[in-house]
Amino acid sequence: MDKNYIGGSSNLLVLSLIHKRDMYGYEIIKELEILSEQVFQFKEGTLYPILHRFENAGWIESYLKIAGNGKERKYYKITKSGIMQLEIEQEQFEVFRESVLKVIGGSRYVFE
Amino acid sequence: MSSNKEENFLQEVVRQINFPFDRKSIYKELSGHIEEAKQEYLDQHLDVDEASRCALDDMGDPEEIGKSLNKVHRPIWGWLWILSKYTMILLLVSVGFQSMTMLYKNVEASRKLEPYTMPVENLFVDYTDELEAEDFLFDEMLGKSVELGNHTIIFERITLHKNGTMLLIYQEVIPFRPFGLQSTKHPINLFLTISSNQHDLSPVQGGMNGIDGYSIIILKDVPSECRKFILEYNVYNEAFELVIDVGGSS
Questions:
Q1: Does residue A43 surpass a pLDDT of 80?
Q2: The dihedral of CA B139, B142, B147, B152: what is its sign?
Q3: pLDDT band at B113 (very low <50, low <70, confident <90, very high)
Q4: Helix (H) / strand (E) containing B124
Q5: Which of B128, B151, B164, B208 minimizes the number of CB atoms within 10 Å of its CB?
Q6: Is A72 exposed, middle or buried (0-12, 13-18, 19+ CB in 10 A)?
Q7: Domain-by-domain residue ranges, chain B?
Q8: Contacts of B72 in chain A (CB under 8 A)
Q9: pLDDT classification of B250: cutoffs 50, 70, 90
């Protein structure tokens, strides 16, 4: 799958995951891979600018937690304004998805 | 263990970050990610070098990652954050310091002093040459206290020099309030009337001086035969009246 597809929906995907539970970066990457059945695989490092941008926007907050191996992990937690943003993203995605379906459906009618 | 390659990768990322104080946390976060990714490859029986290479490969281009991180780690906000943090610390420290000084001052003001027993000659800075202990007509310890509001005024000592200068040494004890506003001492010399043997000695001449927490009312031209003094004070519903009888029993 073309990696560019993820670009526009990265907000929606990442916010949705953090909304389910607090997560750290590596966990988010793994979860994306598993849930999308390997479709969403992108360069893992590019997740962090997204997370830090969300944090700046106040959509998520971070905190440190010591993992089982004794190392610190930076967890992200969604905020109220993050939940509001998630709803906006979901609506936008619905509009996008329906528009795409209409166009695809429409084109089929033309060819039939 | 992080290899040289991983170290180079991380250094390349943080090199792009202009704001120095965010570099460490970015380094730690990405380093943790690489560690876990590498471990997963190790679990799949890759050797250390391969696992490290694969993990770094998955990360992407360090320069690109660093540059996009730098865009969200704007120095101006970072500096403002740091500035506000230190301003806050400074503020707290100074508030703390002030309340400590205030506490100390309040403790000082509420401390009752011992009666003033130092030679009174020392108090006459203007007349040091002519003053001798035997030139005093009287010099008596009093220890008489009156209540003024919630303050206590203790008249410690009265002394009259033959040149007509009389000293009335007293202390004012203020109730202790740990962090409240400390009430100030009463300007007694402004409102006190002192009379003796039909002589009105007020308004008090010479005003008030202080030494080591004691206050001193100085009266000039006091007739040498005066021995009984009536002190009256009445200001803003706070009043007292005191009779000092030098040489008397009360």
A1: yes
A2: positive
A3: confident
A4: none
A5: B128
A6: middle
A7: 4-106, 120-245
A8: 49, 52-53, 56
A9: very low
- Residue type, position B123, single letter: L
List Cβ neighbours of A94 (8 Å cut-off, separation of 6 or more): none
Higher pLDDT, B50 or B108: B50
Q: Is the pLDDT of residue B108 over 50?
A: yes
Q: Count CB atoms within 10 A of the CB of residue B64.
A: 16
Contact list in A for residue B73 (CB cut-off 8 A) is 52
- A4-111 CATH pick, 3.40.50.970, 1.10.10.10, 3.10.290.10, 3.40.630.30: 1.10.10.10
Top residue of B16, B31, B33, B35 to mutate, by most chain A CBs within 10 Å, is B33
Any idea which residue has 């965010």 for tokens? B22
Mean residue pLDDT of chain B comes to: 82
Residue B11: pLDDT over 60: yes
Decide if A46 and B60 are in contact by the 8 Å CB cutoff.
Answer: yes
Partner-chain residue, chosen from A24, A26, A43, that has the shortest CB–CB distance to B60 = A43
B98 in contact with chain A, both atoms CB, cutoff 8 A:
no
Q: Which residues of A touch B62 (CB under 8 A)?
A: 45
Domain map (residue ranges) of chain A: 4-111
For residue B12, is pLDDT > 50?
yes
**Integer Cα distance of B246 and B250 in angstroms:** 8
CB nearest to A44's CB, from B13, B26, B59: B59
Asked if B32's CB is within 8 angstroms of A71's CB, the reply is yes
- Checking if the pLDDT of B122 tops 70, the result is no
Provide the Cα torsion A70, A72, A77, A81; round to 10°: 170
Q: Looking at domain B120-245, which CATH architecture does it have?
A: Sandwich (2.60)
Within 22-61 of B, beta carbons closer than 8 Å to A belong to 25-26, 28-30, 32-33, 35-37, 58-61
With cut-offs at 50, 70 and 90, classify the pLDDT of residue B209: low
What's the mean pLDDT in A44-53?
A: 93
The verdict on whether omega for the bond into residue B203 sits within 30 degrees of 0, i.e. cis, is yes
